[in-house]
Write the structure tokens for this entry.
Amino acid sequence: MTEQEASKKKPAGRAGRNLELPEHLKSYKGVWVFIEHDRGAVHQISWELLGEGRKLADSLGVALSGVLLGGPNEDLDDFAAEAFRYGADSCYVMRDPILKGYRNEPFTKGLTDLVNQHQPEIVLLGATTMGRDLAGSVATTLGTGLTADCTELRIDPASRALAATRPTFGGSLLCTIMTLAYRPQMATVRPRVMPMPARNEHRSGTIIEGTLGMIEADIVTKLLDFIPDASSNKVNLAYADVIVSGGKGLKKPENFQLVWDLAQVLGAEVGATRPVVQAGWVDAERQVGQTGKTVRPKLYIAAGISGAIQHRVGMEGADCIVAINTDPNAPIFDFAHYGIVGNALQVLPALTDAFRNHFAMKRQKAA
Amino acid sequence: MHIVVCIKQVPDSAQIRVHPVTNTIMRQGVPAIVNPYDLFALEEALRLKDKFGGRVTVLCMGPPQAEEALRKCVSFGVDDAILVTDRAFAGADTLATSYALAAAIRTIEAEQAVDIVFTGKQTIDGDTAQVGPGIAKRLNAQLLTYVSSIVELDLIGRWITIERRAEGGVQVLKTRLPCLITMLENTNELRFATMPDMIRAARFGVRKWNKDDAGIEDVSRIGLKGSPTVVSKVFGPTPRAEKAELVPTERATPRDMALNLVQMLFTKHPLLEAELLEKARL
């Protein structure tokens, strides 16, 4: 279990736990966001986190900083400039050939050293394959609290501590978690959970340089290669505007083609539920939900999906949800905006035709 | 070769119900299973054993009934199963959990050196993916998360090459043993337990360790006391105010329903219609 057994509410202070912030940790000040970048581009989660970090920093009355680790020939200054536009007041930058391309060991040392040296009270990272890898190592090294996959971050007025809310038990419950007696307070947030902040062209900030102090010979893990996903199977589900998802209600793997057909007409990405991914009908990259991706499309069409909580937590942020399910009592109809109680195997092809014809007609009119 | 696989017994989250008033998990009747993600780790460990020989030890921290989860693993052909169970571990967060598991692995190492520790990518109850990295750090083992395949293992030279999932691609990493691997899902298919193995599992002597057996040196670092994170509030998800608006199905063909839905959608969301038209044009 991650956090304490969420099923039993325990009064704070039980078992002689220290819940007071020790004197020597009271000097920890400021909010940090780890700026994730790879092969010349910053991951959008970093800007989303800066937006969230700005709110936290403002409510604490402290500065917001970005942290950038990378190689000497990478565009770290450009990334820092962009971080300022998204709300950072300063950036801690560490440049070293060892930091070109993500590896756990040097990045853990780099971030840990920066934290020990500059003592921020809050450190936020994206809940990506990089952010989760790094956050777990850094929090363990620092011996502090880390809360994963947060969906809401705010400052508790009484303690001035970070109150981080996250789904647990597959999303059946939400827990608000605080790290009271340790610093920094660390949290990861998934891409797309927080909105993009406004970009201010005229904001600037200061860069504080740091040094890594390692030699390549000391690092036992070598990055041999990076194989980019082929553009044909590049799945950018989290940032897709339209998603058509299928569930086990489609009965057979070959029926999943109906989802692909509708997605093609709509110019949409294809998503799926965990059971579908587990059955091997589609690639795990397409899983929407608690153990998959969080999505926030303008339109989400759910076909043959019952709407289990694990799926719901990943897609309820969609602007418009359309559900197709034979069972009128399926939970999906409790949170979808529009619904068809019917067999997805017949309704999906009919919808594909209806959308296709509708667009053709509109285009004719426009011509 | 000696591999340790860390597993966890979890409630089958697909069947979890929450008490509407108290917001507590109702465990009665919810089957306890081996965390599904751990089974990919277990299978990968067994495949390495098939190829290179050696032993696989399964390790689990949990209440006494978690012994069942370990037996399940034994039925797939592991050599040793250890349940670390002690009331002192109750209420552990990921930091305290990784401390306890790392101590237990060190104790296992005292019996036989460990080359690789495997875990699943995350559990389905906690969903943090933090315990694997935590154990690696404490054991000073190289961390390899979200591994999709083991490309090469050289037990003589003591190095391993793997592929791991990264944002937008796959990293190929080479590192020295010992290492900790968190296995990505759907990387392999779990073997079937044979009848003799099932019989063996039923009779298997799962070793049960309390905190002292596990070699816990500092009790202030386990359980609730060793957990920096404090749960301040537990609540249920907010239900949406309105239910879905349904298209009429009375005497309607799928075609009628589809046309109806498209009309309804675009009448209410003209902006969405414009965007979709733009998309469909591309």
